[in-house]
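dumping these here so i dont lose them again. two proteins, back to back, each one seq then structure tokens. dont judge the mess
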Amino acid sequence: MTRAMTEVLRTQWLASRWLLVPIVLLCIGLPQAVVRLATRYAGGSLDRLNPGMTSEIGPPLLIGALEGLSAIFPFLAAITGAAIALAAWNWDHRTNHVYALALPVPRSRYALMKLWAGALILLVPTLAIWIGAWLATAGVMIPDGLRAYPLAFTARFLLAALLIYATMFALAAGTIRTTLVIFIGSVLLLMVMGVGLPLLHDHLGVDLITPLQTAWYTMLGWPGPFEVFGGSWLLIDV
């Protein structure tokens, strides 16, 4: 690692370290909370520490409960990638890019070093999500016919976070305000579509197909660029 790369990594770490604190806590705690809540919603207990209190839970009930609660993990991955990407350029925008001009490296190489530095920092929440997933699955008695997938879950989280990180990194090279408007607007739109359209179908019998919904399935379905967000985020599955 060159001296310039080391300096860029140190600067980005200082800019993002406090953002990582709540993210790391969420990455460790949410997988455990989701598994525990799913077992309660399924009407049983899978506590490995208290075998006498463990009750049988049907795999379909557990998977159904996990599917509803696991929808939070794609948003956690997106927030993680976006936060690190915004933090990567925050220092430059605050100093009007004087810091970048002072370095004896071309602008293109500097941006590439920043991109790699942020990707390395992403390994911190990735390690945290792996720890949380491992603790969540190691602390429960998994019903027959199901398996735990902490490594696959962690890999999906990393890929999703990297995808959003790269996208937001490119946008944040312009202005932070514009990037925030685009990101927050996109997240709100996806939430409205993900929640509102199924409610219209279930309660009113209206199957509303719009250009936005078509774009939603095109982006999240294979071979769409954001397909990783539309796949399975279950820690325990068949």
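---- next one ----
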Amino acid sequence: MNYKQRNKISMFRAVNKVFGTYSTEFSSIPVLTSFIQSFGESLSEMEEVLLIQQGKTTGASKQKIKEEEEMIEETVQMAGCMFVYAQVNNIPDLQIKCAISSSQLGNMSDEDVKTTCLAIYNEAAKLDGALTDYGKTPENIAQLKKEIDDFAALIASPRSAIVTRSQATRELARLITENNDLLRLKTDKLIEQFKTSNPKLYNTYKAARVIVDLRAGKQTIEEE
């Protein structure tokens, strides 16, 4: 998380407090209430992503990280074994398929990494016992499939968060843009209705929307 993102998130938190303080007043505009609810849910997701970035995951997220790491480790080992097999046996197409690394897999989305690992498994399953001399037995191939199945079961759950740090970085940027657009293009416009009817609410909201540069203490007004 860079300093600009940190400043933006600080502003989001301040705005969310205003939404909670004046929930009764905001409820007079049903559409605004729905936007506020969406903002709160997105902010909660953002807080979870921040924990992931800082390596402070717990519960299901920690389990998911563990399963993904195990799957990637097994896949990279199997791919390396097949890469050498393909090289020795002059199978260039298989070599290309097996030229993968842990970092490449770690940067993929959940579905993409699962698909890529499954593709490696499928190639290994075709070779079966042919890889034994290279260090991978049919039991190792079956273990890779188990790791993939375990990971697939986790990401199929109703709420599967992005959990690797590299993925969390991309997800954080998306959520910040999403929340910023929601405020700038929706709630900012509807809040204008309170300018005269409830100036205290209006001014409190506007004050929360000021972004404070946490490095220098400067303030900037969010641009329309």
